[in-house]
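User: quick one
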Amino acid sequence: MQTNTEDRSKRYINPYFGGVLLGLLLLFTIFITGRGLGASGAVKSSVVATVDRVAPSYAVKQDYLKKFISDTQRPMNNWLVFETIGIFAGAFLSGLFAGRVKKFRVEHSPKITPKTRLIYATLGGMLFGIGSQFGRGCTSGAALSGTATMATAGFLAMILIFGSGYMFAYFFRKLWI
Amino acid sequence: MGPLIANGYIDPAWNNVIALLVGIAFGYILEASGFSSSRKLAGVFYGYDFVVLRVFMTAVMVAMVGLVYFNYMGWIDLSQIFILPTYMTSVIVGGVIMGLGFVMGGFCPGTSFTGVAVGKLDALFFSIGLYLGIFIFSLAFPWLEKIYYGGDLGPITLMESLGISRGLFTFLFVLATLGAFWVASMVKKRVKDIEI
Amino acid sequence: MNKTYFFLIVIVVLLGAGALFIPEERFTEELPPDQLFLKMNDPSRFVTTDQVARAIIDGDPNILIVDTRSADQYEAFNLPGSVNIPLEELIDSTGNIDERWEDYLGIEGMYIAFYSNGDVCADQAWVLCTRLGINDLFVMRGGLNRWVETILKPSPPEQTAPGEEFALYDFRKGASMYFGGGGAIEVEEQSAVPVTPVRKKKKQVISGGC
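Assistant: Done. Structure below.
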């Protein structure tokens, strides 16, 4: 029985089928809202909201954060924040049906310790956070939606993210293989 | 007709509800495709798992082709959709940094959220890293401002940048995508599988 | 290769190749010909000179009066508060409303009355704009010719005419004075009503990105 659930949790949908579904979702989203999908924007909103709560006087004059603070709307009342809440819910549902939701664990290559993995995950997250601000979007906001809507910035972001990934892949191969 | 909200077919009050529903579908598709696993994601860089390439490129292709037909049918006004503005310096710096972050962290923001949802600690740490990264960026913004606003070209599209029509680019993109899938399947055969 | 994948590849390539042959038109919401025909035969698309005069005198903010004659003719004489959109320049080379007029036409809750010397130019402007999906358009029946006959130089009704005609005549006499036509009192050549057309709000800009 144990092996049975183990197998089930490794069963993913066909990647091309997943891609078609994702593409249709993206098309549908653009059709309804005029904008694509996104993810890192929600984290940015929560940074803005935190600073706004902890040090409001700093937030309104901080050069970067003040761009995202308005008198009429609270920082967390944002399209992307709601979308991201949905991402959590949807992923949880999918994981639940496929038997992938388990208690917290670290997924890592057998050659590295969980601690190494966590350190690199945090570092990678920090870099991605900084990069997503320069790119004005992450893989979903800039690369995926941007390329689909033919924005030059989106296409460049897609090429550069994967290009630089391949470029640096050699140096971090111990982490994965 | 479309975009429906901007043209008043749907009341803007529904915006957040739609966002939530879109997010649920987005998260479900990502997780079901296996994007909650960093080792599957990183496989694209080492040739042992091309799920990222397949899902991502197929999605872009479907949406791109779909928009061409939607425009033709008069269902969507392409002049009204959001076009990401191009800041050349900024997007190059950002893209390179994101690529480095991808190969180090094994996630991108959206996928890390799906990882957190199924209980991956590394995904949680990646998300915390994201938060810290954006916080650091905003603190350092006075020094980064030059790069952030560098090479401003406005919201230009690939048609303007390359001087070709939307249809031609879409067709070339479809061919390039199919080519990439073929190359990926060739590479996958040579690289030895690893147990994820 | 798997049969399903081969099939899918063919579909995708065909769809992609289809994109090559699709004209990249600017999006327009055209009115289908049958509906246009119905609208053209609806007499309520005409307004009388009296209704236009009353709207100008009342300063009705929901009515925009559009002069479809050439700029020279507009300079020589126009109705107070009217905007000049020459018929020849109404449509640009792509077959859409010229950018210069986009701010005036198609405003939600705004009624537009076209006029010219007679009915012809105003009627053409009405058909063109209606075909392009703009609502709430009207034509001032009889044009400026009737304007002069009825508003600027009204003739008194017959003695035996019903009372409404006398009321109308009284109104026209007043309007005649207001517009500085052949009335007894000379008023300023141009009306004091300032031209402040309501401009259309710019299309809602969608913000986005991460």
